[in-house]
Amino acid sequence: MFFDDIKDISYEGPSSKNPLAFKYYNPVEIIDEKPLSQHLRFSIAFWHTLNYNGADPFGSNNMIRPWNDIDDPMTLAFKKIDALFELAEKLNIEYFCFHDRDIAPEGDTLRETNKNLDKVVAHIKDHLKDGKVKVLWVTANLFSNPRYVHGAATSPNPYVFAYAAAQVKKALEIAKEVGASGYVFWGGREGYETLINTDLALELDNLARFLHMAVDYAKKIGFTGQFLVEPKPKEPTKHQYDFDVANALSFLNKYGLSDYFKFNIEANHATLAGHTFQHELRYARINGKLGSIDANEGDLLLGWDVDRFPTNIYDTTLAMYEVIKNGGLYPGGLNFDAKVRRGSFTPEDLFRAFIAGMDTFAVGLKIAHRIVEDGELDEIIEERYKGYKKGIGEKIVNGEIGFEELEEYIIDKPQIVNTSGLQEYMESLLNQYILNFYLENKER
Amino acid sequence: MFFDDIKDISYEGPSSKNPLAFKYYNPVEIIDEKPLSQHLRFSIAFWHTLNYNGADPFGSNNMIRPWNDIDDPMTLAFKKIDALFELAEKLNIEYFCFHDRDIAPEGDTLRETNKNLDKVVAHIKDHLKDGKVKVLWVTANLFSNPRYVHGAATSPNPYVFAYAAAQVKKALEIAKEVGASGYVFWGGREGYETLINTDLALELDNLARFLHMAVDYAKKIGFTGQFLVEPKPKEPTKHQYDFDVANALSFLNKYGLSDYFKFNIEANHATLAGHTFQHELRYARINGKLGSIDANEGDLLLGWDVDRFPTNIYDTTLAMYEVIKNGGLYPGGLNFDAKVRRGSFTPEDLFRAFIAGMDTFAVGLKIAHRIVEDGELDEIIEERYKGYKKGIGEKIVNGEIGFEELEEYIIDKPQIVNTSGLQEYMESLLNQYILNFYLENKER
Amino acid sequence: MFFDDIKDISYEGPSSKNPLAFKYYNPVEIIDEKPLSQHLRFSIAFWHTLNYNGADPFGSNNMIRPWNDIDDPMTLAFKKIDALFELAEKLNIEYFCFHDRDIAPEGDTLRETNKNLDKVVAHIKDHLKDGKVKVLWVTANLFSNPRYVHGAATSPNPYVFAYAAAQVKKALEIAKEVGASGYVFWGGREGYETLINTDLALELDNLARFLHMAVDYAKKIGFTGQFLVEPKPKEPTKHQYDFDVANALSFLNKYGLSDYFKFNIEANHATLAGHTFQHELRYARINGKLGSIDANEGDLLLGWDVDRFPTNIYDTTLAMYEVIKNGGLYPGGLNFDAKVRRGSFTPEDLFRAFIAGMDTFAVGLKIAHRIVEDGELDEIIEERYKGYKKGIGEKIVNGEIGFEELEEYIIDKPQIVNTSGLQEYMESLLNQYILNFYLENKER
Amino acid sequence: MFFDDIKDISYEGPSSKNPLAFKYYNPVEIIDEKPLSQHLRFSIAFWHTLNYNGADPFGSNNMIRPWNDIDDPMTLAFKKIDALFELAEKLNIEYFCFHDRDIAPEGDTLRETNKNLDKVVAHIKDHLKDGKVKVLWVTANLFSNPRYVHGAATSPNPYVFAYAAAQVKKALEIAKEVGASGYVFWGGREGYETLINTDLALELDNLARFLHMAVDYAKKIGFTGQFLVEPKPKEPTKHQYDFDVANALSFLNKYGLSDYFKFNIEANHATLAGHTFQHELRYARINGKLGSIDANEGDLLLGWDVDRFPTNIYDTTLAMYEVIKNGGLYPGGLNFDAKVRRGSFTPEDLFRAFIAGMDTFAVGLKIAHRIVEDGELDEIIEERYKGYKKGIGEKIVNGEIGFEELEEYIIDKPQIVNTSGLQEYMESLLNQYILNFYLENKER
Fold it and tell me: Which residue of A149, A300, A352 is the best one to mutate when testing the D interface, meaning the one whose CB has the most D CBs within 10 A?
């Protein structure tokens, strides 16, 4: 036990002043015949939760963690797995995600590294047996090691490509072994620093070759989890190829890969790309590609990936609105790709941060559910576009007319009358949903 | 009457579904022995409310306004004043603000322009008589006319400086005549497009000369309203001299002007400068310079002044927290320097937008008041800094020790223990204040 | 004659101190068997050159133009066409581009508007006869008129869709009639202000329907010019659907439209999307989609479309590098979608700005040509990726191996050795190309 | 010797193809009676040059350095000093800068740390004896150690304040001992993460107390080097108190500190604050506060501190223009606060990067010198503002008139005529200075 001082986190309701209790997230509360836990499918990100040590580009490790004194890498690896499951169970979180390199140290050769992995994976499987906590998705870290300095699948060096391939091969095998629901590709170094030294066409072709190999190998071993691409526009590289959902979709389509992939969308990556979180979710959704979510929050006044725990009710409400419209995230989930602030360095802060994030997403779900149930906002939208359900609008939608008929229809018409977009009003309605959260049902 | 279809906007409470009613702003509700109206001191910005026609850099006028058909400029000027008072009274807003050029058309010479102004000001004074609506502040438009292309007080052309001086002279006289509580300087063109053609030192000196002349003239005529500088970092100019509160304060101090000025802080200007709205408010406040607020909201993914009506509860709560800590804004106020979205072009949208903004600020005030009253957040801060109230900390604050004593004190000490900054936890507390808004008092 | 004081602008060489002469652009200078004029294919943007009046969101018209006194809209329209041809001939520019609404005033109905257009188009055709100046591309203005407040093809109002369709129909007819090389779609209002009132899926479907109608109609009338999409991420709308080249390409592919379109890439739009100008050019190029260029320059510290005349040698060099690698731009061109600064309000400034832009692009072409000819930079890149031309790399590229073979190949290998990316060195080489511009050839 | 393969870098002229030679920086070349070396006063930043290991938030150490195998911290410290002097001498750089923690490892207590420092400082002094390389400035690292997580002088914890005080005390003593020309305060953690947990007023007061103690102690020990504040708006903290020059100046003035400080201005910090590099230099210069420069370059499309080696000729030209107008930087200098790209990991890259930066600044100096000597640009500016040298303009500048006289002067005047700002033309002149760099003098 690593967090002896901390008991299981339980739901105490909105008036609770207990920092170590949920105020809004009641996992067994039922909405639409499903408990909140099934709607939200929360997941712990192994890296930020177990490995983040507080270092930033101007400061060194400062996190107080019960495993800080363990020196032997393999012992440490095992202990962190134990800590993860302890955390997950105390927080009532059913899933977790990890990179291959998060869970086991590298050896001198890939063969040795894989042996280390095998040992830790066996340990994970022991923990998985009781079925309380499961693996949401697995991924390979193709960015931290110096060999990936110029990219992995897009490295100018084919040995690096080979290494990356072998690493993903192993990660897919592990994903299958631990029963992961998905496998994520985040190409942190798949991009460029400057175009003046870059063969962009070859790099993109190679990236596609790499993904095809992954698809083929997954088929071969019978890994049926969902493949997910996680877009990010930059950082660490100056330009990353999976800039945003649309960029990545364009790439996948070009290379005949789109059938095999959905997207894992991260809030802070969306805003770094100049989009709202909701935009990326919506865009993926209407293309049938919303697979999973990396739940965190950026700071729009800061130009780097902040990965804060999400505490903004607007963002979680609009995100959950998209999730509901998507019919849920299954088999994906809400993975907290979030780290505590460097100033929140105690173990207790870790729990407080998860509680904050889970409560905020639970609230977001409940408000979004009310919005969808009431239908008030959706009706305004439906009313707005009703012109396309009849007359000339219907003909447009049905492809029955072209430029000539439309010209004839409009050429002598007087001024067109539009209706208001009602933006401020709809924003005030959204506020009502938030503020009236605890108003008696009859009054709402 | 311009808005015949719209009745007086009244408070109907949070469950109301009437788009033309307040849900949260009850002007007569008492907090701390003062009605909400006195806390909030709402004001209408004449320009965005009466003159904004919907044009943007890529689109032409589209606002449907009852005065659109009036051609004669002076008739139009009078009618808009009438419309303003109708709006203010229907919305229960007690203040308004205006630029000289908002209210009356220019003539061929400044003398003629001033005559036009005199007529409209007389009309305003008629309206002011019943005391229902008052002037919060006055300002001069020193940016729209082509003569100000290279600046006003900072123009390379002394004739332009002279013209601007004469314009502010008249505006100060008007401010006195209408009993304005303040006078604002927003230097939209006081800046530069490129340094390669700019004598920065002379321009800043001239700006200071100009402000000194204004101070002198106000004294001479006995205008005792508060002088306010409104910072903005850019737009329309590439760089504006009053970049943010600190930049402007540095300028005012250098030229011996700081005693005469406070700041009028606009939310969207703060974020364009890379600050939060709260930062600018706080920074002004702790320097004794928080004078008034231009209430609006930007979009942090957009790089220009959006001037939306404020509907973000977080922003209004944190802003009102600063206002409360400031002991209120009197004689300043909350001026809605906000315009309806171009897509919200009906007269009704105007009312809906004000209602959205007023409700959101009323909510912000109430939540902020609870936060201050409960003292929970403030206590965490006090606890955090308590080290400076005793021992070595107290000596530091009292200036009793220097580097040598501090070295001696610390040189053999083992590692220093810090406490958590509790950011995520405090963010979750803030969420509790918002979400529990309608939880029964005993439960909160 | 509108610009009587200004003679034909001629090439006087780099030492010239004549503000109204080219220093670097000699149209008849031969590079690679083609004169500079054919490489660069400069074009005047009608809107920014003839119609821009200096207004910005905070200031009114200030441009001094010889046609300012003309009141009658049709007379003005004719005169501006004359002025355009005078400008083009004096500047030795062979192409121009225009929106339908740039050249003729709107009437009460579309039929009347089209009649106005017919008259002005006839006048343009008279000017075209001598073959000195030609039309690069035509487009329809689907954003300025209030009817387009919520979009054109993506408007919630089918009447607006119909109007836009009729407008593009006419614009295509005009494009054919004036022999335009291309037709551009810039969807300034095809986007959204907020997702909470938007049916994103329907809007995108409708946009595709619209473009299919355009393709069909162009075929029908035999317009064979190149269709071009011009991406922009935002402004005026909060989010525009053609965010960047990749976003637009994804859209075109989804709807089976990509065979019919290339891209018209604008420098300032690229940077607003978070990309370099070169990135967008390169990305389009390697997808076979680089069709034409809107030559201008943004200010990366400003968040709006600045549309400055391009004067940065780095940008024009790297742009022309892409153009050379593209085998030129034909039948596209370099259209100066650029406006003089508001402070550059005299007619002479207009000439000075074009000279600055043309000189800078001519320099860019010459330097880029030397870079390509010398092959020094390209060789470094080739060397960098040589691993993919042999051994395991070649097998990867040829699709001969998969994850299993790659794992076997690498699993026992010791550490991989990478080579430097040489970024700083390559940047210093680029500087040598710029600085040694006039070093004797033998020394370079 | 660490860089045995690399000979002294010598000047070979612009046509040289030797990557390890200067093409433009000839240290003994004379401009205005001073050699380039004295104009430029180049300095090596110890941290980025000797300590930067290539790690970034997503990747681990990858720099190949000859000292990578040395394990003993004190041996390593000594060897790095040797390497620094070897580098400086091979590159012909006369200065270097360092943080206290760059040069020696920390011990268990501050006393032990200081002992380590004493040993390394003695070693530095041995190297300094021959006078070839000198110390430009010294600073204390008050941000890397976990104790500074919440700030140093602005920490909520007075023990941390004491520790920081003791550290600066020692650093000042070292600065005196090594004959440093300056001492820099960069407050990387002097700021806040969120205002909701921050006592802004107390933190700023404490920062002032700290600086006063530093001033007092420097006086006491007779350290006469220049105190410099280095502004930065954010990173690592969300908001840093020395946001930009004006913010910092406002602070220094408020607390009576401005007499003791000038500014050390960094290019990338300027742009992160929303300013051009030239703006910060100019603003400091006209306030008599331009003390020293941290020479590097950012990427305006990236939101973090990139610290690239400067290779942009425009930036170095405009920077050196300000330096010349400042009468040079003495006793400050041009410190390369720049790191090689992570992909440039060989020792040779280090030399190539310095060569690129030094060449680019040498070119900037030469072009700026020509610009100032020719006076062409300055004359345009003088002409632009000439109105303030006579008539009404002169009276304004001399403070002889006020609003009333100015109104009288202008009230009946017809329209004011302005002159063009000539921005595009001046930009094209600047291009001529760059492109004609090697045009024969008589032709230029």
Answer: A149
- The answer to whether D150 and D202 are in contact (CB under 8 A) is no
Question: For residues C307 and C357, is the Cβ–Cβ distance under 8 A?
Answer: no
Rounded (to 5) percent helix, strand, coil in chain A: 50, 10, 40
Q: Is D410 in contact with B159 (Cβ distance < 8 A)?
A: yes
**Catalytic residue numbers of B, as ranges:** 99, 102
Chains sharing 3 or more CB pairs under 8 A with chain A: B, C, D
Q: Are D202 and B385 in contact (CB under 8 A)?
A: yes
Contacts A251 to C, Cβ<8 Å: 246
| The two three-digit tokens of residue D183, written as one number | 């001492």
d(CA D6, CA D351): 9
* D226 φ, ψ (degrees, to nearest 5): -80, 130
In angstroms, what separates the C-alpha of D434 from chain C's closest C-alpha?
7
Closest CA–CA distance from residue C344 to any residue of chain D (Å) = 5
At B189, which helix (H) or strand (E)?
A: none
Q: What is the pTM of this model?
A: 0.98
> Is D224 buried (19+), middle (13-18) or exposed (0-12) by CB count in 10 A?
exposed
Residue D261, strand partner residues: D227
**Torsion A176-A180-A186-A188 (CA) sign:** negative
Cβ atoms of C334 and C41 closer than 8 Å? yes
A-D CB pairs within 8 A amount to 97
* Chains touching D (3+ CB pairs < 8 Å): A, B, C
> How far is Cα C144 from Cα C56, in angstroms, rounded to an integer?
15
Q: How would you write the pLDDT of chain A (444 residues) with one tens digit per residue?
A: 899 999 999 999 999 999 999 999 999 999 999 999 999 999 999 999 999 999 999 999 999 999 999 999 999 999 999 999 999 999 999 999 999 999 999 999 999 999 999 999 999 999 999 999 999 999 999 999 999 999 999 999 999 999 999 999 999 999 999 999 999 999 999 999 999 999 999 999 999 999 999 999 999 999 999 999 999 999 999 999 999 999 999 999 999 999 999 999 999 999 999 999 999 999 999 999 999 999 999 999 999 999 999 999 999 999 999 999 999 999 999 999 999 999 999 999 999 999 999 999 999 999 999 999 999 999 999 999 999 999 999 999 999 999 999 999 999 998 899 999 999 999 999 999 999 999 965 555
Q: Which two tokens stand for residue C217?
A: 């109609």
Query: Structure tokens of D277?
Result: 């590099």
What does the buried/exposed string (b/e) look like for B271-291 if buried means 16 or more CB atoms within 10 Å of the residue's CB? bbbbbbbbbbbbbbbbbebbb
Q: Looking at beta carbons, which pairs linking D278-281 to residues 24 or more positions away fall under 8 Å?
A: D278/B195, D278/D315, D278/D318, D278/D319, D278/D321, D278/D322, D279/B195, D279/B239, D280/D231, D280/D244, D280/D245, D281/D319, D281/D322, D281/D323, D281/D326
What ranges make up the beta strands (E) of C80-210?
95-99, 134-139, 182-185, 191-192
**Which residues of D does the annotation mark as catalytic?**
99, 102
Q: Which chain A residue has the Cα nearest residue B363?
A: A435
Chain A contact set for B356 (CB, 8 A): 424-425, 427-428, 431
- Cβ-nearest to A356 among B420, B424, B439: B424
ipTM of the complex: 0.97
Q: Which residues of C touch B303 (CB under 8 A)?
A: 272, 302-304
Partner-chain contact D59 A302, CB within 8 Å: no
Residues 6+ positions from A49 with CB-CB distance below 8 Å: A84, A87, A336, A339, A350
User: Given an 8 Å threshold on Cβ–Cβ distance, is C114 in contact with A161?
Assistant: no
B neighbours by CB contacts (3+ pairs under 8 Å): A, C, D
Q: Which residue of C has its CA nearest to B187?
A: C58
- Chain C residues near residue D348 by CB distance under 8 angstroms: 420
**Phi and psi at residue D133, to the nearest 5°:** -125, 135
